[in-house]
Design brief:
Layout: H1 2-13, E1 28-36, H2 46-50, E2 56-60, E3 63-66, E4 69-71, E5 77-82, H3 83-91, H4 101-104, E6 110-115, E7 134-139, E8 142-147, E9 150-156
Length: 157
C-alpha cells in the first residue's frame, strides 16, 4: 500500500517538473547494485554488465554524471507507462527479447520512465548510451536503468 501511495505522489510530481530539469526525486547519488534477470537480447556480454555494478550515477537539477561521462544542461522527458503499454513497447511482439514490469519487480499498475538525451558516448564498442540516461522510477529509493537492453537496479546512496 505504501508503494501505491508513493507512486501516486510521484506521478503527480513528475508532470509538474519543467522538461529542462531532472525531477527532485531523482537528484542525488545512486549506486548500481545488481543486474536484473530479464528475457532480453543484449549487445553486451556478462563482462560489460559486470563493469557497471557498484558504480555511481549522480543527478543534479540539470546534469547526469557517470564515471568520467557528464551530460551538462540535461533535459528530461518523462512518460508514464501502464504495465500493458510498457509490455507492448518493450516486448515488441517478440518473446525472444522481452521485458515487463513483473521481470523488473515493479508491482504498480503504472510507472514513470525518464529519458535524458545526449551526444553519443563511447562506453563500449557496442553502445553509445550512458548509464542513467534511461530511468524507470521504481520507488523513492530504487531506480531501474537500462543499457544495451540490459536492466540494472540502482539504490539511493
Amino acid at each position: 500500500m505504501v508503494g501505491a501511495r508513493f507512486l501516486c505522489l510521484l506521478l503527480a510530481a513528475v508532470p509538474a517538473v519543467p522538461a529542462s530539469q531532472i525531477p527532485a526525486q531523482l537528484r542525488g547519488d545512486w549506486v548500481i547494485t545488481r543486474l536484473i534477470p530479464t528475457r532480453t537480447i543484449s549487445c553486451w556480454g556478462q563482462r560489460d554488465a559486470d563493469r557497471l555494478l557498484r558504480t555511481h550515477i549522480h543527478y543534479s537539477a540539470d546534469s547526469l554524471a557517470w564515471k568520467n561521462y557528464e551530460v551538462p544542461h540535461a533535459t528530461v522527458t518523462a512518460q508514464e507507462w501502464t504495465a500493458e503499454d510498457f509490455f507492448r513497447e518493450y516486448c515488441g511482439g517478440s518473446a525472444d527479447s522481452c521485458v515487463d514490469f513483473r521481470q523488473l519487480g515493479v508491482h504498480a499498475n503504472a510507472a514513470v520512465v525518464l529519458t535524458i538525451p545526449h551526444p553519443a558516448a563511447h562506453i563500449t564498442e557496442a553502445t553509445t548510451e550512458i548509464p542513467g540516461d534511461w530511468v524507470l522510477l521504481k520507488d523513492k529509493s530504487t531506480i531501474i536503468i537500462s543499457v544495451c537492453n540490459l536492466y540494472f537496479e540502482a539504490h539511493r546512496r
